[in-house]
Design goal:
Elements (H helix, E strand, L loop, with lengths): L1 H12 L9 E3 L8 E7 L3 H10 L6 E6 L6 E5 L2 E5 L1 H4 L2 E5 L3 H4 L3
Antiparallel strand pairs: 1-6, 2-3, 2-6, 3-4, 4-5
């Protein structure tokens, strides 16, 4: 568990992401799209709780519902999760590129 937490913290401080990818928070995500988790900007308690639920750096999540109000519902490693807006605001994401975009023509 400590390795995942350490990776999450170092991911937030690293500038290794390609410049064409933009980071956004989970509460800004669009329903129906898949994203990769960059890190969690919360404290240790939030990091550990989300890691136990299957949301940690490098993991992909699909946003099922992200209305302007109410919880954000995502599909992660351990199933469907409903996260409050405050927690969702602490999860940093980047959009997953569509596999069809990378396919040779």
């Amino acid at each position: 568990m400590r390795n995942r937490l350490a990776v999450g913290i170092s991911t937030l401080n690293d500038k290794t992401e390609p410049p064409n990818r933009t980071a956004l928070t989970l509460d800004q995500a669009t329903a129906g799209k898949t994203y990769r988790v960059l890190g969690v900007a919360g404290g240790c308690g939030v990091n550990i709780r989300l890691a136990n639920l299957g949301i940690f750096p490098g993991q992909t999540v699909k946003v099922l519902r992200a209305n302007r109000v109410g919880p954000v519902i995502v599909s992660a490693k351990n199933g469907k999760l409903a996260l409050g807006r405050g927690v969702a605001r602490q999860v940093l994401l980047t959009a997953e590129q569509d596999m069809s975009e990378n396919a040779p023509k």
